[in-house]
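Subject: design request, 217 residues
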């Protein structure tokens, strides 16, 4: 703002005060920026190998020497894409799962043809495939489709509008259990037609809840 000529400052200040960006969903607070982002940014720019202590999902903590090639922020979650020494190809790390990051004096070798945008597209495609391992066909009340999409994202596809005002949809997730857990709270507003594995999981959840609450006076 100070760098602008005085005649433009009032308009710039008005524009800046007219917009507020709140990245947090309702009922949630915004995530804090991970402490290691600045260190990793410097390592990417300087092409320096970093020593990372990392706790992967359901895996024991391990140490890696990584050539950092680029950083990506998605929904306030930061990811590092780089090459791991002693292994071929690239790997993606969640920055908030890093326990420590120590820059080294070793130069990192970024491939000449590396494109961060293209690399991230590959990561997204891989994650989406994993998220869509199991698919279910369900019938839901059409006015509630927006809420269903908020749960399943692009893994919710409307197949057809039915004469009774409901919609037949295809939803997908990594496991049948996860689909059932997401839909259990919908009650009669969502009916799963297939596969049997999801229907069985829903029946199991219903039985558990019945056992807990049927004796409540």
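Subject: RE: design request

Done. Sequence follows.
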């Amino acid at each position: 703002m100070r760098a602008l000529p005085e005649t433009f400052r009032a308009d710039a200040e008005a524009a800046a005060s007219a917009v507020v960006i709140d990245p947090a969903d309702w009922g949630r607070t915004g995530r804090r920026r991970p402490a290691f982002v600045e260190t990793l940014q410097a390592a990417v720019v300087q092409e320096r190998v970093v020593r990372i202590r990392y706790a992967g999902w359901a895996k024991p903590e391990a140490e890696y020497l990584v050539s950092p090639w680029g950083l990506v922020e998605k929904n306030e979650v930061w990811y590092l894409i780089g090459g791991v020494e002693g292994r071929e190809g690239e790997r993606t790390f969640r920055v908030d799962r890093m326990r420590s990051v120590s820059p080294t004096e070793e130069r990192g070798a970024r491939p000449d043809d590396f494109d961060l945008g293209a690399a991230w597209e590959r990561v997204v495609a891989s994650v989406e495939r994993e998220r869509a391992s199991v698919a279910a066909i369900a019938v839901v009340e059409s006015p509630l489709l927006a809420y269903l999409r908020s749960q399943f994202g692009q893994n919710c596809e409307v197949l057809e509008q039915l004469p009774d005002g409901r919609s037949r949809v295809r939803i997908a997730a990594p496991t049948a259990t996860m689909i059932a857990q997401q839909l259990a709270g919908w009650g009669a507003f969502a009916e799963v037609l297939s596969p049997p594995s999801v229907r069985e999981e829903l029946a199991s959840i219903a039985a558990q809840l019945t056992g807990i609450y049927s004796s409540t006076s």
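Residues 196-213 form the longest helix (18 residues).
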